[in-house]
Amino acid sequence: MSNASLIFNIHQSLPMKLECAANCDAGDLLAIVGTSGAGKTSVLRVLAGLMKPESGRIQVGNEVWFDSQEHIFVPARDRHVGMVFQNYALMPHLDAIHNVALSLMHLPKHERLIKAQQWLNHVQLSSDQQVRHPHQLSGGQQQRVAIARALAREPKLLLLDEPFSAVDQMTRQDLYQLMIDMRKSLGIPIVLVTHDLREASLMADQLVVMDDGVVLQAGSPGIIHGSPRNARVADLLGIQNRFQGEWLGPSSTPGYGSLRWIGMSSTDAQPDGPILTVRDKGKIKAGQQVNWVIPGDGIELWHSENLNAAQFQATVIQAQDLGEITMAKLSCSDLPGYIVNVTMTGKKRGRIKEGESLPIFLDQNLIHVMPFKY
Fold first, then answer.
1. H/E element, 250
2. pLDDT digits (tens, 9 = 90+) for 152-199
3. How far apart are CA 121 and CA 114, in angstroms?
4. Model pTM greater than 0.85?
């Protein structure tokens, strides 16, 4: 494989707005996430050479595939890109090994089959499965064939377009693990497009969150989940505990500020709502309305040894047992409209009961404050 990094910066205004810039090192996986119509697949098409943007630059290693200022545009056939699609795109009349061999037409016939077999072994397809036709294979097995076919020509860039959305959850987990195991050994940049945030966070080294053709935030999964840039990013990431507040300005403790927690609607707003002491990055003016989020690991029930935790009394209004986890909604008893969502694992989740009154603790160090507007 090439061991070359991907660097791109692309712009387009028609027929839809598209502005996206990112880097992806060799052996890393970059996930582009967003709702339908966000522009994710258009970015893949541009990288593959199937669509020419108005301006920008795309470079893989020392090769420039597109540069609008230098009038460079390398066509798709010369980019050596591997693509894996949601619908597998396999030839129904060919068995698995001959489907992979189709991407090796530049080799003598006997070498094609040997190399195709090697790649099918690499994606953990058995000898028996390799001679089956697509309709004789499960969805997960078909996708393994598609991955082997994409990699067989040793591409310089691998593009994955919603590759796991057509298979069941158990199969999806196996395919996740396959990609995690393979990506470092492949030594090429991998770009994944998905609407599944859990999938992206599980596999990606970097996330790009897109909406309406524009990148809202880019960075590591941990940083984006812990510090979303604005409320729209938090919504797209599916962060459950997003609240409204008023920024009161710096507190008496250096590096910290005062945040008043208010309800999610005007009917819930309380001018004397609780005041939280949270980290102050010095970017928000006093008196400004804000959104704020807290991750699940910043919430504890019953008791806490965290001296910086804010304590409230809450009532369990809903508790759903979902097998290995329990999802609960708690209403802060003295604060109408203040609902906190908790996901619990382990033995403690068996203790939580609807209607129960209990103390809840919010780690103020993990609270992240964002501008109110998107």
1. strand 242-250
2. 888 999 999 887 776 777 777 888 888 888 887 888 999 999 888 878
3. 11
4. no
